[in-house]
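Progress report, Aim 2. The chain analyzed during this reporting quarter is listed below.
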Amino acid sequence: MTHPVHGDVTLVPRWRRQLLLGAFGLALTGLLVRAFYVQIWARDFYRRHGDRQQIRTATLPAHRGRLLDRQGTPLAVSAPVQAVCIDPRRFHPDETRLRRLARLLGETPEALRRRIERHRHRAFLYLARQLPPERAAAVEALDLDGLFLRREFRRYYPAAEVTAHLLGFTDIDQHGQEGLERRFEAQLAGVPGKIRVVRDRRGRIIEAVEAIRPPRPGHDVRLSIDRRLQYRAYLELKRAVAKHGAKGGMLVLLDAHTGEVLALANQPTFNPNSRPAAFRGAFRNRAVVDTFEPGSTLKPLSMACALREGVVDAAASIDTRPGWLRVGRHLVRDHRNYGVLSLAGVLKKSSNVGITRIALRLSPVKFTRCLADFGLGAPAGIEFPGEARGRLPSPRGLGRFEQATLAFGYGLTVSALQLARAYTVFADDGVLHSVTLLPRARDDAARRVLPAGIARRLRAMLENVVSREGTAWRARVPGYRVAGKTGTVRLAVPGGYADDRYRALFVGMAPASEPRLVLAVVIDEPRGREYYGGQVAAPVFARVMEVALRLLGVPPDSRAVLARLPGGAG
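Predicted structure tokens for the chain:
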């Protein structure tokens, strides 16, 4: 078929032009129909589909509450940090940037690559947690597709080892794992928030669309601990353990009138800001959860029970000659023959024979019931997970020799906290206090255990123990009268008691005229020539107590000091 030609121009047939225009018209109509369908008819469907690709629900971490000391000084705080996250399905960096990323994350490129490939099927993977802001910014600057940052918090403990056993620590997700972090989890933990966000193709948040629920921060918890006293307790206990090559130590400082714990320390300790696996055995708060035989520190309690039950008179004399006493088939011995002693002399010389003669006048039922009244064999009720009960023997199985050994601190177990608590009876004129790690003005759970007169009499006897002629003269504090009792306990081993392993103790109070503080010091297995409680534990008591009394502004009560004051006795 030929087409008409006009000059050099070939004319296109009319039908072909119409066909071409019709095709364009149909295409335009199809586009308009498709646009109407997408924009109007199926708008909601495509909006939901697009939202699923770009809009996500993100979690907003809640700020964890702080742990504060009694003055409001922070002991545990949460600082903002960043987590490095990826979508492994879209994360395909080149070799150069992968190496730079691995260096910033502190691992080898090969290990990082293997980890990513192992989780390639997942939509989300943490590459690193709790990165400081400056390192996180350097990671973000790599501008890698599929990599994004997520805001979180890291727990930080300003006093580190000083408060480690008390506060415990959290896991990487800010959940309390040990100590007071665990005990007060409900108060400290906040409620995370939720928000809808738009992410770009690299997973980064570019716009916040809607706040579903704002994060609710946790509450601060103020403790009874005094950071200044806690530091001194930690320092002196650490020095003593190192000086005597000891296995460890424990210390508890209580307010004698409220039962508040002002300081509590253990050795060895750990750094809660950096917890290598090697320190896992040091996490335990031994002053609260471990128990031991208290030895001669129990003798004042035994004597108090005898006085309370009226089986011995305050003016009585006790014959300890010839330095030993047969009880059944067993012998109770003193270090030497102390002769005839007053009740004060029995405590001053720490006579096993003397306290045995006194305690055997008690019935087993009355004796064990009285010791239970001092809080032994039962938890003190402190706000701390895993607190030990200790063990107090049943009176039904208590023979005469078992009762004798119980009188000088063997055959039962206590914690350092229980021992300090028991001495609040002597410090506060016969009143036993509950103990707490929270500040309070008074102890509503306090109860009377001894008549005030007996408690004061025992306190006067314990002052003699700290005299030059007593076993604890190294516990003296310049300017203050001190009352307390030493203990040197042989450690139990299979088949009996070791001849060369000891626990040294001292429990005391000051100022003795009107005690404000009670302090218990326990040193485990000191090595060397000095291992007695008066040699090892008493000096720790003196140094900690001196600082505590002066920081708390407790006036001196030493007779020598009072005599030098205006109007004092000459």
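The mean pLDDT is 89. Residues 36 and 42 are 8 Å apart (CA to CA). These observations will guide the mutagenesis work planned for the next reporting period.
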